[in-house]
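User: My advisor, Dr. K., asked me to get a structural model of this assembly before our group meeting. I'm new to this, so sorry if the format is off. These are the inputs:
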Amino acid sequence: MKKITELRKIVSNPYAYVRKYRKQSGKKVVGYFCSYAPEELIWAAGALPLRMFGTSENIHLADTHLQAYCCSLVRGILEEALANRLDFLDGVVFPHTCDSFQRLSDIWRLNIPRQFHIDVVLPVKLDTPSAKRYLYDVLGKFRKDLGDALGVKITDKMLVKSIKTYNKIRSLIRKLYELRSKNHKILSGADFHAIIKAAMIMDRDYFLEALSEIVGQLKKAKPAKAAGDVKRLVISGSVCSHPDIYDIIENSGGVVVGDDLCTGYRYFEGMMDEKKPPLKAITARYLERIICPAKHLQLKGRGENLIRMVKESKADGVVFLLLKFCDPHAFDYPYIKEMLEKENIPCMLLDMEEQLPSGGQLQTRLETFTQIL
Amino acid sequence: MLKTIAIFLAGKFKKFTMRFKKSKTMKDYMMVYYSEAKSARLTRRKVAWITSGGPVEPLIAMNVIPIYPENHGAMIGASKMGGGLCELAETMGYSADLCSYARSDIACATVNGGPIGGLPKPDMLVCCNNICGTVLKWYEVQARYFNVPLFILDTPFCHTEYTKEAAKYVRAQFDEYIVFLEKACKKKFDYERLKKVGHLSHQGQLLWQAVLDTATNKPAPMSAFDAFYHLALIVTLRGTQDVIDYYTQLLALMKNRIARGIGAVPNEKYRLLWDNIPIWHRTRWLSEKFASHNACLVADTYTTAWCGALKYIDETKFLDSMAEAHARIYLNIGIDEMAKMVLEMIDKYDVDGFVLHSNRSCKPYSFGQLDIQSIVEKERGIPCLMLEADMTDERSFSESQISTRIDAFMEIIKERKAVSKK
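Assistant: The format is fine. Below is the predicted structure of the whole assembly, which you can bring to the meeting.
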């Protein structure tokens, strides 16, 4: 499909796309760091929200600011900035998540010049009246801070328009998940990954058009019947920026039918009520979406959610992709594993260092896992 | 049960004999504290586990016994039992890269291990995330394990400011905290008692600051290693008369040492500042190592954290000012503001060098250290030394490497001092 080829090209070199886009459209580009960044407001303000993924290669400049026991995601993003590869950013938005990103914001503010810098200090707990009120207040403050930085007044009308765009994108992505869950043969794992990633990079209006076209064609497509003995897997973790993992899983006799990832379902899940006052609608979405383990919402919420996801997608097992030195995920792993075991859902743990373990080794481990399922 | 009664009686007896003791030791207080806590079931008092930066005063006002897993972590580290317990946590599925306080505590709860045979079971958990995000995850683990209510005091991080939105949020949570306590203790909150406790807490913090201030004297009558030891009371019993009594006595002792010209390090020639949580399993070794170079660690950023937010406390508006004081503690602020405080300490204690413990277990304390170090080097031009270790897990400590690095660092300091004297 032509559109998918186009998306894959953009995703393989997002900075080139963004540089060109910025020059041609005259729009400002705002970098953000996690799926809690309220990017609906950034898009509403007429700027392009760009998710930062960082590099996993040759990290050395970041070493003068961050010790080796900091996760590769945070170090890799800082490396990109220090190497001056992000000079096209007009500003950055740091939503509060974990201890490492919290300090990255400080280090960034002190070392990366010529950008506006906004901290959105979100609540950590999401289930009390005062926390809900605070989230609303913080988003209101962000609306003002961002407007000041970009020199625009972000009106309700602009927010409503952005909400509608995001709702459409999110519902189409969900459709994509559904279609692939029914028959993964319609779309390769690597293509799927490219589409998901493109959603965090591209002009959102243009992406929506491309996505509508892709989903429309996939709905009509009559692909080969899915092989019967393929094992259905749900992957769980933080960021997955390795397109290969989908392919490796497929080559190991498995297929990803669902995920609990920051760069996956957690980013798309949850619609905004278009009838509500827009800031209230955005607030509600961030309160109710599936949480990241750096946030608090009930003691077993993440485990229950994962089990529900496994059951709904009729998955055979779960693969945990845990980034080394990611504390929030590492703390949750034992209890979630225990909950899965009680439900007789097999799982395996892949510890990820800066890069994925070599393909062959990984494939062997995944094959062993899919064979026992 | 018999064991509990024995612990209870031992505590009572100790408390009784302490009345006749002229100078009471830390051991006396800690023995009474832990025996009261361990026999809480017998005396029908409630036990709350609370984080070190959490608001303990409302607990004291409700006659709840506060227990500090972090203080316990320090004890585990000091008794060199951290490695074993951490290993147990790892077999339970917890990554070896997680905080060693959390790992040892989580493991300890399942086996009642450690130097005091485990902590008394909690009736409730109080977690304030002003020190890190780790405590949130750690207390969630314990809330699931013990199946007890968890209160989270969420203090938004103050990168550059304490916003009015955050102020409103934190203040509202103090009211929610009191409702939580009323429910957990099944009794009305005593605001009058809180006033008294608040006063004692404030006085205790002022006294602790005064004790630490004595180290501005040359030679310093106490070192940071002494502060690590004497810290236990301001952490665990803040808001009680015991803290006042103990630090009053300690302050007199330090003043007496100053009057007699006695230093913590017999021949103090070099004065150093320490950053981060102590390496609990190596405090004595490090103390002797620095002393062998006639160097005294006269101050540290860690123990001052328990009086660092004094400027925000107003006894007449205790609850309001508590909110601000908890949100703006040393670890909940941006690294530029932390660096500013470090520079102030460098001047105040007139130090010749800065030693930073890069602590694998504590990301919010350690990430940003490299920037603070460069700021210090630029602004004050004093030598800095970064040591890689872990506060409780003794498996991450390389004695020979650290020893060599300290020797090299001290050589630089000696040379510089010799030059500046010429």
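One thing worth pointing out at the meeting: Chain B has two domains: 2-6+24-191, 195-421.

User: Perfect, thanks a lot.
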